[in-house]
Write a structure and sequence with these properties.
It is a single chain. With 70 residues, the protein is an all-alpha fold. It contains 4 helices and no strands.
Length: 70
């Protein structure tokens, strides 16, 4: 069985929905919370991209991407 598509290997991109990121890589929740995105559980997170959330919260999307993809 080929396990090359594990969620650990999934690269997070700026156009991914926050809800999808959390669903596919739940370990990112702490990173998002520590970055100041306390509203990750709100309904808008299901329809908001990482880039949009960063704009709303005044965050650098490139920095957050580097942290999420460590």
């Amino acid at each position: 069985m080929d396990n090359t598509n594990t969620t650990d290997e999934m690269e997070i991109t700026r156009d991914m929905l926050i809800g999808d990121i959390i669903k596919n890589k739940p370990e990112t929740i702490n990173i998002l919370l520590m970055a100041g995105m306390g509203c990750i559980a709100c309904p808008s997170s299901l329809y908001e991209t990482l880039e949009e959330a960063c704009m709303v919260h005044g965050m650098d999307v490139e920095y957050l991407l580097s942290e999420l993809n460590r």
